Amino acid sequence: MTETPGRRERKKAATRRTIADAALRLFFERGYDAVGIRDVAAEADVAVTTLFSHFASKEALVFDQDESFEQRLVAAATAREPGEGLVAALRRETHALVRHCTAGEAAGLWRMIDATEALRRYEVAMRQRHAEALAEALATAAPDRGEAARRALARFVVDAFGVARTAEDPAAAVDEVFDMIDAAWAAAGSS
């Protein structure tokens, strides 16, 4: 059973959401580079210090779902359905993440990211953090594999998202990349 968050946690989450929504609205209207932190704080009707208590940087405003994506990848590896293989679970979650990021408003957000140098750099660092977190989770999910194999799998899975997200046929790209990942993971286990 999930515990309902208290009033304070709900207010913090609502403030965070208000700030993130205001930032994205301004970024879409004016362009990322034309909007400053003070603009976002004013639009969200919060102090700059409040903004920074929720977001470490301007780039973090764009990647509001960063932590959620990382948690989803980790959960795919560590909380699989009974009988579901590790690579199959990671493929399933990568498909879901790619579907989310290539549809609706998220597609426009990724176009902005791809067109903005600072956001592209932030995304590379974010993917590296995701790969490190996934590699740590794989130590529990695949303890029979060596550290190098687990780190490589984590990196390939996270990079599969980036490759598929920009492909003409994202779903086919996920499958193509994961077919290679699955074959490599199987081969590494038989050596």
From TrEMBL:
GO terms for molecular function: DNA-binding transcription factor activity; transcription cis-regulatory region binding. Pfam families: TetR_N. InterPro entries: Homeodomain-like_sf, HTH-type_TetR-like_transc_reg, HTH_TetR. Coiled coil: none annotated. Keywords: DNA-binding, Transcription, Transcription regulation. PROSITE patterns: HTH_TETR_2. Residues 36-55 bind DNA. The keyword Membrane does not apply. This is TetR family transcriptional regulator. Residues 13-73 form the HTH tetR-type domain. It comes from Promicromonospora citrea. It comes from the Bacteria.
